[in-house]
TrEMBL record:
Lipid biosynthesis among keywords: no
Protein name: 2-oxoglutarate dehydrogenase E1 component
Enzyme Commission number(s) of this protein: 1.2.4.2
Source taxon at top rank: Bacteria
Reactions it catalyzes: N(6)-[(R)-lipoyl]-L-lysyl-[protein] + 2-oxoglutarate + H(+) = N(6)-[(R)-S(8)-succinyldihydrolipoyl]-L-lysyl-[protein] + CO2
Known role: E1 component of the 2-oxoglutarate dehydrogenase (OGDH) complex which catalyzes the decarboxylation of 2-oxoglutarate, the first step in the conversion of 2-oxoglutarate to succinyl-CoA and CO(2).
Single Gene Ontology BP annotation: tricarboxylic acid cycle
Name of a matching Pfam family: E1_dh
Originating species: Thiogranum longum
Family matches, as InterPro entries: 2-oxogl_dehyd_N (IPR032106), 2oxoglutarate_DH_E1 (IPR011603), DH_E1 (IPR001017), KGD_C_sf (IPR042179), ODO-1/KGD_C (IPR031717), THDP-binding (IPR029061), Transketolase-like_Pyr-bd (IPR005475)
Length: 956
């Protein structure tokens, strides 16, 4: 076979290719596509195929058998095995060995992280990787002093094999284990490779920088020792063993400032949190000591939370400008704070016009077992490059204690080699680093941040360390991990090791480490902050800060004029009805738009979708941004919203609510990824950061919120009481028993009502388009920020009676209680039926059908805060009504009954008595058989209206 020549660049292409030595079938397929049309294959492959041998050296394309033989040869040795330079006598042998040297270099890039010295305890078992030996690649001892081209290895153009191997060990087998060859973007991979190899496995730090690291390590260790002796036996979830986290975060903030970062938002669980609060964010030691002594902060009025769940924020002055640093509040649910921080960061970025994520950077600190074990990590990483949730890259830090609770075995903790493998799903580079080598820690920190700022993608630092104490300071770890803790007991602290190193290398005198320790202790004794450059509030005056003060006083039940004039509603519709030229709607969607034209003209009653759209249109026109996300929220799960329209000719999308007028507020609707927990947490974080945007999360079905229950329990319902965090998030949860089985019927209304107390949130069940119109408008217009849980409808979206008029939108406000709508004589009413939601219309139709005139039906549309005064006023209208019925379609142990019964009792006029009518107790939210559902529904409606005919079982 003739020599295969190739243009410059193909060897580099081979070095990056994941096809190295594999998949000849794929190469053959590429060649077939090339023969059909050269434009069908990437340029680099096209260039290569042009160099393949011809039959007899010229003429037509070679025979297919010749091509197969060429490909087979490539699978035995690397692609493009010959240099384009002329060969000298004996060169073919040398050239073959040259390729093997490049294979060896590539093997280190791919696999050397597995044998890197990243475990400070030395307990990690390293595999015996033959691929990292010259012998594996057919290179003998006699080749060690032969000069070879180094390819793209950043150590000079040529070197002996001995020097190449030595350098590869220094770069890839020291305190840093770099995983980056899985990245599919060549530019990113090349960038990381060049940075790592140029550094040669060593951190280049000035003496002053290294002394600063020692000071930060001393502050980290000093705080833990101080607390350990002053508050004996109290849990603090010590950072000891992972002390390098403090200089790591310090470097992130300082280096971030050189990139123009103005805000760093940190999320972490409780391990090391107190240390971060004191030594990074700037909380004073005196404040922390008060919390250890069980005292609440002077400005705190809620129930509070334990000290290692608290958040804090401050402004720090660095050499390159100020940085606002905040540590998010977090419950014990470890990784759940991740998407909350991401949502907060997205809001901060949009508030400051930071479209590229250069001003605001999210930093998430994880535990190793939690990073691998908790699904919300995957959900959050999956959001990282999506349009609606991207924050342009997150710096993930795994404080890898090599143990989860009491588990240290990898076989128990995960099914992957590393706890960080999940991050490979988004091609994130992963930098494993020995926590006992602070210089290496700073080196990877700089690399990680620079990568994030250059490529706007996630990056992971795996800080491999250990946990000096048990899960908490009251734990006895040797009971389950005797070998690990025997090693820890005899192991010097990171500060001690680093101090010895600096003294030995002549960076400082042997007295300096003690002087730094004494100064640290003196600061703690005085209760001062441990952070240099901390700015006072007067100095800070952060330009993008939000004043939450106006939202503290007003009650969310106050009356508010949410009306919009009929003329303005019609003007808004005319803007919404304007389509781009040639935009062809789906016929079914076109029918809905046509009906909305008639609704705007008053020729048809207004349905739910139109009222909701007008609410959003009026808000963005008035300057209130709207953010709506959920699975299929653009169209609406039940085909009712159509906020996003699609052209049937080319698939292009058009959003009328973004095109009302020039200068309007933003309307953003997001078809979210298939996640509830991370997405809802993201929207919560966004809403806690931006009180001026109406933030809405919509569940596809109400019960889907089950998958995000931790967000509801720990943040939405309790965030204000625990952490003084206000939030105006809206949750739209489709609810209603319509024969769709247990999983698609109930939004679990009872769960939200059980969480209601101290005016922490609102729970509403609107039944008319006008009600949702006013409810959404008041949520953002009222100077009050409480979460709003809406039991939104399904069948009512198109129910012939669930309609409103333009006048209903141009008058009044949201009604917590809707009075009787038919003309009844108040004095003749003997029974009042109270209800919420869809069952109202079934009761109404049945009463009208039977022409009942002595039963009034009232709708309670706001279940919390319960409208006692309004309901009592309505009940007083019926002096002869001795029987008050609460009718619900949910089972008796579910729905609203048990949560509001005491409120109902308190509103009853004498001598009325209260009675429940609805489904009986049930373990499931609804039945799964349509005939049984209809039988139960018929029975409860009939009982509520005083008639209960014998029901026959019918076929479905």
């Amino acid at each position: 076979m003739d020599d295969i020549t190739r243009p410059k660049g193909l060897l580099e292409f081979w070095e990056d290719s994941q096809l190295a030595g594999h998949n000849a079938a794929y190469l053959e397929d590429l060649y077939e596509r090339y023969l059909t049309d050269p434009a069908n294959v990437p340029e680099q492959w096209r260039t290569f195929f042009q160099t393949l041998p011809r039959v007899n050296g010229h003429g037509a394309e070679p025979s297919h058998s010749t091509i197969r033989e060429t490909f087979r040869a490539m699978t035995r040795q690397p692609f493009a095995v010959r240099r384009s330079e002329p060969c000298k006598p004996g060169a073919p042998v040398h050239e073959e060995k040259q390729i093997r040297v490049l294979q060896l270099i590539n093997a280190f890039r791919f696999r050397a992280h597995q044998v890197a010295d990243i475990d400070p305890l030395g307990l990690r078992e390293k595999p015996d990787l033959a691929e990292l030996t010259p012998e594996f690649h057919g290179l003998a001892e006699a080749d060690l002093d032969t000069l070879f081209d180094t390819g793209s290895l950043a150590i000079g153009e040529r070197a002996t094999l001995r020097d190449i191997v030595t350098k590869l060990h220094e770069i890839y087998c020291g305190s840093i284990g770099a995983e980056y060859m899985h990245i599919t973007e060549t530019q990113e991979k090349r960038w990381i490779q060049e940075r790592i190899e140029r550094a040669g496995g060593r951190a280049s730090l000035e003496a002053e920088a290294r002394l600063h690291i020692l000071q930060r390590l001393t502050a980290a260790e000093g705080l833990e020792r101080y607390l350990h002796t002053r508050y004996v036996g109290q849990k603090r979830f010590s950072l000891e063993g992972g002390d390098s986290l403090i200089p790591l975060l310090d470097e992130l903030i300082r280096r971030g400032a050189t990139h123009g970062v103005k805000e760093a938002s940190i999320g972490m669980a409780h391990r090391g949190r107190l240390n971060v609060l004191i030594n990074i964010v700037g909380k004073t030691a005196a404040e922390l000591f008060e919390e250890f002594e069980g005292k609440a902060g002077k400005h705190f009025n809620g129930s509070g939370d334990v000290k290692y769940h608290q958040g804090f924020s401050s402004d720090l002055r660095t050499e390159n400008g100020r940085v606002h640093v905040n540590l998010a509040f977090n419950p014990s649910h470890l990784e759940i704070v991740g998407p909350v921080v991401e949502g907060s960061v997205r809001a901060r970025q949009q508030r400051s016009g930071d479209d590229e994520g250069r001003r605001v950077v999210p930093i998430l600190i994880h535990g190793d077992a939690a990073f691998a074990g908790q699904g919300v990590v995957m959900e959050t990483i999956n959001m990282s490059q999506s349009r609606g949730y991207s924050t342009k890259g997150t710096v993930h830090i795994v404080v890898n204690n090599q143990i989860g609770f009491t588990t240290s075995s990898q076989k128990d903790a995960r099914s992957t080699l590393y706890c960080t493998d999940i991050a490979k799903m988004v091609n994130a580079p992963i930098l494993h680093v020995n926590g006992d080598d602070p210089d290496a820690v700073i080196s990877v920190t700089q690399l990680a941040l620079d990568y994030r700022m250059n490529f706007h993608k996630d990056v992971v630092i795996d800080l491999v360390c250990y946990r000096r104490h048990g899960h908490s300071e009251a734990d006895e770890p040797t009971a389950t991990q005797p070998v690990m803790y025997a090693a820890i007991r005899d192991h010097k602290t990171p500060r001690a090791l680093y101090a010895e190193r600096l003294v030995k290398e002549g960076v400082c005198h042997e007295t300096v480490p003690k002087q730094i320790m004494d100064a640290c202790r003196d600061r703690l004794d005085r209760g001062e902050t441990a952070v240099d450059g901390l700015m006072t509030r007067e100095e800070a005056r952060y330009p993008w800060a939000v004043d939450w003060e106006p939202y503290l006083a007003q009650a969310c039940t106050a009356f508010l004029d949410t009306t919009v004039s009929i003329e303005r509603l019609r003007q808004l519709w005319r803007s919404l009805d304007h389509m781009p030229d040639g935009f062809e709607l789906n016929p079914n969607v076109g029918k809905i738009i046509s009906n909305r034209r008639k609704m705007a003209a008053g020729a048809l009653p207004i349905d739910w979708g139109f009222a909701e759209t007008l609410a959003y249109a009026s808000l963005v026109d008035e300057g209130y941004p709207v953010r709506l996300s959920g699975q299929d929220s653009g169209r609406g799960t039940f085909f009712h919203r159509h906020a996003v329209l699609y052209c049937q000719k080319d698939g292009s999308a058009y959003i009328p609510l973004r095109n009302i007028r020039e200068g309007q507020a933003n309307f953003l609707v997001i078809n979210s990824l298939l996640s509830e927990e991370a997405v809802l947490a993201f929207e919560y974080g966004y809403a806690t950061t931006d009180p001026n945007t109406l933030v809405i999360w919509e569940a596809q079905f109400g019960d889907f919120a089950n998958n995000a229950q931790v967000v509801i329990d720990q943040f939405i319902s309790a965030g204000e009481q625990k952490w003084n965090r206000l939030c105006g998030l809206v949750m739209l949860l489709p609810h209603g028993l319509e024969g769709q089985g247990p999983e698609h019927s109930s939004a679990r209304l009872e769960r939200y009502l059980q969480l209601c107390a101290e005016h922490n949130m609102q729970v509403c069940v609107p039944t008319t388009p006008a009600q949702i119109f006013h409810l959404l408008r008041r949520q953002i217009m009222l100077e009050c920020r409480k979460p709003l849980v809406v039991m939104s409808p399904k069948s009512l979206l198109r129910h012939r009676l669930a309609v409103s008029t333009l006048e209903d939108l141009s008058e009044g406000d949201f009604q917590p209680v809707i009075p009787e709508v038919d003309e009844l004589s108040d004095s003749t009413v003997r029974r009042v039926v109270l209800c919420s939601g869809k069952v109202y219309y079934e009761l109404l139709e049945k009463r009208r059908e039977q022409k009942i005139k002595d039963i009034a039906i009232l709708r309670v549309e706001r279940l919390y805060p319960f409208p006692k005064a309004q309901l009592h006023k309505q009940l007083e209208r019926y002096p002869n009504a001795n029987e008050i019925i609460w009718c619900q379609e949910e089972p008796q142990n579910q729905g609203a009954w048990f949560s509001i019964k005491h409120h109902l009792d308190a509103t009853l006029p004498d001598p009325s008595r209260l009675r429940y009518i609805g489904r009986p107790f049930s373990a499931a939210p609804a039945v799964g058989y349509a005939w049984l559902h209809l039988q139960q529904q018929h029975k409860l409606v009939s009982e509520a209206l005083g008639s209960d005919p014998v029901l026959k079982q019918t076929d479905t």
